[in-house]
Amino acid sequence: MKRSEQLKKLSWEHHDALKFARRIKKGMNNGTTPERIARYVIFIVEALLQPHFKLEEESLIKRLSSAQAQDIVVTQVIADHREFNRLVAAIKDGEGDLGRLLESFIDLLKSHVKWEEQRFFPYCERVLSDTDLDQIRVELDQGHLPDEVTWDEPFWA
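Given the sequence above, the corresponding structure tokens read:
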């Protein structure tokens, strides 16, 4: 899918998010304990996903009109961000079956990336002005996260 130059860095971060989902799934399939995987999930969320969500909300969503921000395309993004926070809190607190929580996290991550790439970003590219998109690019350049983080316990290898 063709992405505007202004939003490409967010798409790159989505590619990384799908890589994290594959690593989590691989760990679950190779017998890695859910507790070990959960530590990785919490690390990834805190180091990369929460800052990514903040960039989306503060750089993209804040520039939408109140009517545009009420579109289902946008409200779903915000709902997903809240659901990630709820899931991670449950993982941290040990609420429920950890394996199922991790599966839910993987499913949400994949569906969220798909939603944003197929629906949310095209919507923003359509309704935001070139001036807004150019300013967003500046903010994304300043807030873009590294594509690789160091994790000392690679369970997916």
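The helical segments are 8-29, 34-60, 66-69, 72-93, 98-127, 130-143. Try to locate this feature in the token string yourself.
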